[in-house]
Amino acid sequence: MDILDLNKAQATQQNEQEVEDKEKESKEPVVLEDLSALAWLELEEFSRLSGLPKERILELVNLGKIKSKISHNKLLIDASSGTNALIKKVENSLISMDMNGRSLEPVFVEKTINTILNLHDKVIGAKDETISAFKNENMFLKDALISMQEVYEEDKKTIDLLCDELNQAREEIEFMKRKYRLMWGKVADMSSVNKK
């Protein structure tokens, strides 16, 4: 196996962090629901991915270092908090090994990195699913809004048509009133002429 160049990995990580920071500054804040809502793993799957025994995971849950919840009678572990707990554990192990003067074995480092990458992939997958769900919801809302707009336009045309008909009916009524007055005015004039 190849020995990892830690300096290169740290430099790459710093560059990625700088790019993320620039992207955060350039974008307006977007309020989304908690993306970690879809990043829950079952205890067995988390144990398999992290390489930790179930007892140790339960111990970390009891200590509050890993978030968990029970859903459908299954213990679910939050992948992001689990990743953070593993990173801290590995960090502490690396520091203690370094202080004892022992060298780190490349296999240990590689397994640790693979575990972290696997958990990271799960979190990214959950994030992508959430984004996809938001896009689908937005498309649904957009279609509903367009449909409502079409109904509004049709109702507006109907109201305009009814207003025109109402105005025509008013004009006809006014015409009939004038005709009626004119007719009765002539009758009144004729009766006054006949009386004379």
What is the topological layout?
Layout: H1 6-26, E1 40-42, H2 43-50, H3 54-63, E2 68-71, E3 74-78, H4 79-99, H5 106-195
Antiparallel strand pairs: 1-3, 2-3
Pfam family, one: DUF3972
Coiled coil: 152-179
Keywords: Coiled coil
Describe the fold and architecture.
The chain starts with 5 loop residues before the first helix and ends with a helix. It is mostly helical and 196 residues long. The protein contains five helices and three strands; from the N terminus they run αβααββαα. The longest helix has 90 residues, at 106-195. The protein has a domain at 32-145: Multidrug-efflux Transporter Regulator, Chain: A, Domain 2, CATH 1.10.1660. Strands 1-3-2 form a three-stranded antiparallel β-sheet. A hairpin with a 2-residue loop joins strand 2 (68-71) and strand 3 (74-78). Helix 4 (79-99) runs antiparallel to helix 5.
What is this entry, summarized?
The protein contains five helices and three strands, in the order αβααββαα. It is mainly alpha-helical and 196 residues long.
Gyration radius, to the nearest Å? 38 Å
Structural class: mainly alpha
CATH class of one domain: Mainly Alpha
Shape: rod-shaped
Helix content: over 70%
Order of helices and strands: HEHHEEHH
What is the number of beta strands?
3
How far from one another are the termini? 133 Å
Strand order within the widest beta sheet: 1-3-2
Number of helices: 5
Q: β content, as a range?
A: 5-15%
Organism: Helicobacter pylori
InterPro entries: DUF3972
Keywords: Coiled coil
Protein name: DUF3972 domain-containing protein
